[in-house]
Design goal:
The chain has about 300 residues and is of the alpha/beta class. It contains 14 helices and six strands. It folds into two domains: about 230 residues, Rossmann fold; about 60 residues, Histone, subunit A (Orthogonal Bundle), CATH 1.10.20.140.
Length: about 300
């Protein structure tokens, strides 16, 4: 049986480096589980591996999409299915986008595709009303869904209304019907990497962001902004890029940008670590722990 090895955890804990080391000992294909690295041009801010490494070792789902493209959890699973069809080797999934990992392990609900016409209608209606009123509407249609969604969460309210509009079954009931995991037929191993000391970790995040600035993060963000021409590009709303955009637009100072980006990245890391409790992990390692590769190989081979 082929193996699916997952390495997950918060940002800046050495996940990619660990995957590359395992790859040296075990013939595998590495697949990125990262919602930003998949975009072309978002290089520094997403902390992609160097091009030399990408040229030498297969990394699926990196530099796959144009910046203007949308990419959903369903799209992620579809791309994984293509990768599984193409390669016969064992796989290493590595990254920090926990919703992707959750869907990879558990499958996702059988929900209808987006309906642009319906979405535009709701968004036009909201201009004269509010998302709170849309939440009240959802409460009438699907009270169970409304209980799970905050009245300020416009994206989830819209999706719930959309699914209820398109389906004969309510959004809350459809959510319980899962498709099987795309790696259901693989022997699965999952390992998490976490920082040992939160204080040191936060300091390292600050230094990493400053290094990104030295490498040209502001210039990279400016290029993406110019390319957007006023259109929404989701990458610019992610941690790090968002703070640089605010600096470019003179909303915050240089030092404020560093402080806010560090804090936002740290909060992201905390959420990523909270997600780990939902997964059935073989082992959790500290990022500075020795012999992680040998310990993982021992677990996999035994």
């Amino acid at each position: 049986m082929k193996k699916a090895i997952s390495i997950l955890g918060p940002t800046h804990c050495g996940k990619t480096e660990l995957a590359i080391e395992i790859n040296k000992h075990l013939p595998t294909k590495i697949i990125s589980v990262d919602s930003v690295q998949i975009y072309k041009g978002a290089n520094i801010g997403s902390n992609k591996p160097d091009q030399v490494i990408l040229d030498d070792i297969h990394h699926g789902l990196i530099n796959t999409l144009d910046l203007e493209d949308d990419f959903s959890v369903k799209d992620f699973l579809n791309e994984i299915s293509y990768e599984l069809f193409e390669y016969k080797e064992d796989l290493i999934f590595v990254g920090g986008t926990m919703m992707y990992f959750y869907s990879l392990f558990n499958g996702i609900s059988k929900l209808p595709e987006k309906n642009i016409q319906f979405r535009e209608k709701i968004e036009d209606e909201v201009k004269n009303k509010s998302w709170k009123l849309m939440h009240e509407r959802l409460k009438e249609i699907d009270p169970d869904a409304a209980k799970m969604i905050k009245e300020t969460d416009s994206q989830r309210i819209l999706r719930a209304l959309e699914v209820n509009h398109l389906s004969k079954i309510t959004f809350s009931k459809l959510k319980s019907f899962k498709e099987k995991s795309v790696i259901d037929d693989y022997q699965k191993f999952s390992f998490a990497i976490i920082p040992r000391c939160k204080k040191i970790f936060k300091s390292e995040l600050r230094e990493r962001f400053k290094k990104m600035l030295e490498l040209g993060l502001i210039e990279e963000t400016t290029t993406i902004l110019e390319r957007s021409r006023g259109k929404r590009i989701k990458v610019l709303e992610t941690v790090g890029y968002k703070q640089v955009v605010d600096f470019i637009k003179d909303k915050i100072s240089y030092e404020e940008m560093i402080e806010l980006a560090t804090n936002a990245t740290y909060q992201l890391a905390k959420r990523q670590m909270t997600w780990l409790k939902k997964f059935n992990l073989n082992e959790t390692f500290f990022s500075d722990e020795d012999d992680k590769v040998m310990k993982i190989l021992s677990i996999i081979k035994n």
